[in-house]
Amino acid sequence: MASKGSSMSFSRKSYRLTSDAEKSRVTGIVQEKLLNDYLHRIFSSPEHAPAAATSRKPLNFQNLPEHLDQLLHVDNEDEESQGQVEGRLGPSTVVLDHTGGFEGLLLVDDDLLGVIGHSNFGTIRSTTCVYKGKWVYEVLISSQGLMQIGWCTINCRFNQEEGVGDTHNSYAYDGNRVRKWNVTTTNYGKAWAAGDIVSCLIDLDDGTLSFCLNGVSLGTAFENLSRGLGMAYFPAISLSFKESVAFNFGSRPLRYPVAGYRPLQDPPRADLVRAQKLLGCFRAVLSVELDPVEGRLVEKDSSEWQLQGQPTVLLTLAHIFHRFAPLLGRGRRPPPHQCPPLVQRKVYLVEAVLMSFLRGVVEAGTPAQAQSMVRQILDLLWLFMEDYEVQDCLKQLMMSLLRLYRFSPIVPDLSLQIHYLRLTIAILRHEKSRKFLLSNVLFDVLRSVVFFYIKSPLRVEEAGLQELIPTTWWPHRSSREGKDSKDVKDETAEEHRRRRAYERGCQRLKKRIEVVEELQVQILKLLLNNKDDNGGEASRYIFLTKFRKFLQENASGRGNMPMLCPPEYMVCFLHRLISALRYYWDEYKASNPRASFSEEAYVPPQVFYNGKVDYFDLQRLGGLLSHLRKTLKDDLASKANILIDPLELQAATMDDLDEDEEPAPAAAQRPMQALAMGGVLPLPRPSWLSSPTLGRANRFLSTAAVSLMTPRRPLTTSEKVKVRTLSAEQRTREDIEGSHWNEGLLLGRPPEEPEQPLTENSLLEVLDGAVMMYNLSVHQQLGKMVGVSDDVNEYAVALRDTEDKLRRCPKRRKDILAELTKSQKVFSEKLDHLSRRLAWVHATVYSQEKMLDIYWLLRVCLRTVEHGDRTGSLFAFMPEFYLSVAINSYSALKNYFGPVHSMEELPGYEETLTRLAAILAKHFADTRIVGTDIRDSLMQALASYVCYPHSLRAVERIPEEQRIAMVRSLLAPYEQRPWAQTNWILVRLWRGCGFGYRYTRLPHLLKTKPEDANLPSLQKPCPSTLLQQHMADLLREGPDVAPSFLNSVLNQLNWAFSEFIGMIQEIQQAAERLERNFVDSRQLKVCATCFDLSVSLLRVLEMTITLVPEIFLDWARPTSEMLLRRLAQLLNQVLNRVTAERNLFDRVVTLRLPGLESVDHYPILVAVTGILVRLLVHGPASGTERATSVLLADPCFQLRSICYLLGQPEPPAPGTVPPAPDRKRFSLQSWPRWV
Known about the structure:
By secondary structure, the protein is of the alpha+beta class. 49% of the residues lie in helices and 8% in strands. It is built from 39 helices and 21 strands. The strands form 5 sheets. Strands 2, 3, 6, 11, 12, 13, 15 and 16 form an 8-stranded mixed beta sheet that branches. Strands 4-14-7-8-9-10 form a 6-stranded antiparallel beta sheet, with no helix packed on it. A 3-stranded mixed beta sheet has the order 19-21-20. A hairpin with a 2-residue loop joins strand 12 and strand 13 (216-222). Residues 74-254 form the B30.2/SPRY domain. Residues 476-497 are annotated as: Disordered. It comes from Acinonyx jubatus. This is RING-type E3 ubiquitin transferase. It holds the Pfam family TPR_RNF123.
């Protein structure tokens, strides 16, 4: 029999006449008696004892089909009885009733078993109901949001507000709110999580209804159900927007069958019996070996079986698979949409028979034995089954594997996840199967990223974390001064013991999780294999095409939301991908000494402009790609020897002119289908979903790559390469890796780049994709997971406060003591639970290894930006997300991984800080960067950078010319640019040096409301005298620098303070109305922002006067007098508004409105005082006289303002009542600690 694609081959031998024994040894042909014994041993009926050898009918390959027909015969009554069951009404194949008027409210999968909420609260029921007996169905929870799952009758009417359980004769369990519903609601059950399975049981004999969660009964939920004539119950669900589940009515084996309860859909019993009998025959082949020399059968361990090409064994297997194949795979010419019964039957058989058998193989032997056995089984499938049968079988097998992995409960040793991953690895080690799955299934039909995810247990007791981490620990104190505070006492001996025990438990958990992570990395190593190109494309290049489409779907953000990869999956996928990528990178380095180590990795700049890699519609630093190609085409030609085809430029221009977004109604009317569970996407997939931009599907620039028309000789420096575009699917290995005279992805190398390759070009594209993944959703998820640590801190504070109250409470108040003791117990139990969950989160998300991955990604981005910057104008082609990832990954390392792991412990920490500082300092005002968002991000990152001592010192370590250029950009006039962030940066360089400006918390809050002192979170002052000196030198440098800068600051101060006064007038009027209207919180926020801006602008003026007083006081300068008069005018206006008795400012401050906590006399008056002190006290004598005369000559000057600052009462006007002597007044003398 010829092999149709097996990875092994059987050679044809020349047979000659010899003795029987020698003939058997050479050809494998066995004697008739031995063949008869062998076939009877393989195809014996399990229901009957083996007959004596003398009474058995002789078996050979001629009469074997007849014997198999008898062996596989199933009574017709068993086949015909399916669907005709008392107590059940409706089709025998149970699916969701998508014709029941719910089309606009829900998205239903093609197999009519998965559903996704697409409205406020949509409801759907099944096509089959029950009125008698005991029945069960399962729901696979894909998201843990608001859903109500249960049963309803046909008379129940639902809407967008009322769903299952909100009407009579409908009953539901809600694991999100942990309640049960039947018109009214009460507490019931446990909270569910994504990956859980809910079993819904109804007993219509006793009239009860109950639920199970992951096989554990939650108890009887409802009793005395209405029964009788016309009462039949449908499975039903109501779910809110974006929530998703998948139903199993019996189309697959129930994960948690319940004794006495029957699934709504009967299994395919006849086919199941046949498949199990054939599997038994196959098992017999594995456990029996022919010995033609001795003429006997030899029993052996099936795990040691080897396919050796014996004709007798091959013919026997051919007969088995001839009957087995139709049960597992589809027909030769299936209809476009196979009928649900046929599809569901094959799904059931693959999961119940083949999957169970393969699981047994993996669980019984060692990993090496299991992989060998699975490989041989797949060889047999490809050998004896038609290709389309094997492909359909493999697809169903991987779908079952993913579903089983995703919905497996977390057990202490993670054995279930380990077995499923080992089976996945064994299947993917088979080259032909791997390539088929990678090309057609893993990214097209399945959400295969699920294989790289380790779900977090919501219920730690079920995950066995109590046994693994018996001792819990959490921080018992928090610092009021933030993370940098060192004012903490040493822990007690008991705390030290508990912390060490907790850390040992965390290490035990981490080691178990690392086993799963290593298996996941092995899967990716198989998918990234580029040595398996025998007779076809290597796996890595298939993976690259699918991986790019995966990134495209998630980057567009305009596709079908359920299609997008959840952020928690993306985090795990990124870490596994980095591990596999670095493995192959360093492996290539070992065989190519001129290449670089993965520690030196970066993406060369030509990747961004030669068009070989598709960046979809992601923004470039210099704007749209079409614009850059037109404006920088001369630079591309001169620096990179690249010519853009004029016809393509013209086509791109016309496309941009004609491009219109798709109208919303048209988009809403398109057919939308998505599968809710297991990440399986609909089949066949709608073609419109393949477009990442939907309304821009035909856009020229969304094609994947620019490919060089390969020249026949090496290019000289004067020759240019004309390029054309290719789609991602059209790319070949040569387009990526290159060939003779073709650099592949590295086409268009600028002269600044080294000639020797970093690594294989394909790995550069994987690296680029990893950076993009971090930008898409990984950073967001890292910040979200910090919430568990925040919860621990909040409960720890609450527990500590409760314990303090217990110590202070009088013993005679037993009622209070009882309540406090109860609260203490609740907080302790919650902390025990959260501390164990935190251990899981630290092991899976915030471990030292994960931190090193993010740090490596940060350094990759830094090198990439540095190399891109050297290309001059071509730097504009770099996608914005490289700078975003550099900024965000540093933020994540600094804020998310502590306090367990510190960024300061990372290798090369100081150097990395300095390199990032140089990038921020150079590019925050880079004219090559035009995007508003990325410019704001750079400005905010620099502002944050100069707040902390370590990063500020890094800014001071960058080359002097870069520091001066940065300060020069900061001193540019404030008009026509976002000046607020620039001003904050200057203020932070000064804070700690100004008058009364040494505080870390606003002093007026520490006095009036100490418990709210942490609201405005300010860092410890860390001024930079070096950068201040650069600022002073630049202001003295030219005649126009200082006037233009200071005039813009004074203009903005005038605007900000005027806006602030106008807003507090509106706030005061609203507060004085009789109806007591609430003030808009947004208005309060804007008002506080204007106040803070006014204070910060005053501080910048104070810094300028301190550093360069001659700008205002040396009247030999042509602009000094004018600047001084403007400054005096603004200072008098501020003082008059703030210091007047019972004025508007005073009344608003007294209101203490939420959101206006920072608005007080102290911040603004101390800033004004700092300027006056520098002008009138600490300046040179001649300058002091000039400043005094200008201040007194200003028409707005009022002496009472100076008296107010000093705490002296204002003399009452004639005919007015003097103020009360005990009235509290502002005075600088009241703040000796700060002034």
